[in-house]
Amino acid sequence: MTVSNKNVDDLNMDALDAMLGDAASDTELHPDEGFMSRVLGDALAQQPMPEIAPLSVWQQITGMVGGWQGMGGLVAVTCAGFWIGINPPEGLPTQFDTFLNLETSVLAFDDESDDSALFGFGWDIEEG
Amino acid sequence: MPLDVYTDLADDALLAQYCKGDAMAARALTARLTPRIYGHAIRMLGDRAEAEDVAQDAMMRLWKIAPDWRMGEAKVSTWLYRVTANLCTDRLRRKRGLGLDEVDEPHDPAPSASTQMQTRERMDALQSALQKLPDRQRQAVIFRHIDGLANPEIAQILDISTEAVESLTARGKRALAEILAPARSKLGYDDDSI
Fold first, then answer.
1. pTM of this prediction?
2. For chain B, which domains are there?
3. How far apart are CA A88 and CA A102, in angstroms?
4. In this predicted complex, what is the ipTM?
């Protein structure tokens, strides 16, 4: 293609389009690594922290006793204690008896023991 | 989230991830957006250090506005280009206030490789010619022909009509062609090569 075939303005415009095309793909104008690191540093410094929902009272309590496992153990022990409280095994003084000082002790009777003074006291009364 | 997923995410989706504390989203947004606005700023200002200041400032504004960003209302890149364009305009106005003697001449923004000497010369000549255009024409030409944005998006960024963008780019290109015409042969744009 020669000048005679083309208007001079068109030639200038074609040259300009070529230059602009080169400029669009010009990698020399890419930012350097140091600058990119600074921008990323800003991004991370400004980044909002993920929101942590405040713990409910129930979550705080279960947390204090060791979570679900701890709470399960605590409930089991409480139930067992409550059951023993209302229906104690035979021979075990109830809490109510202990409170009124009515509990009975089961003593193994020992014929060989030297409790003659105690036993003798009763007999004295009976025999007058 | 796997790394390749980030390349498929839209800018506003990445911004939402960023707000959730995702550091990879911060990296992806930085890598995707910073070179674009930096490239625009260096074309507008003709100075690496100033372009870095502007690009860093614009990105900082993006990080700060991120928690309040409303998905789907505006394109992140359009908003960012607009901030960048305004920051560039502010700097150019301040420079003009200093007086012409105090304004640095646009200089070669990168060292040229010997094998690409002519390309470098062309890019330098284009950069010099761009600096001679009025600010709005320069912005419009850079957005349209170097950044590759569509006219409606440029209209949004510059807050003017699409017709005004077309007029600005046409006048800008004509002015550039006139400035560069005397150096056409020197730059290797011979008549037969076009």
1. 0.67
2. 10-100 (1.10.1740.10), 112-187 (1.10.10.10)
3. 15
4. 0.80
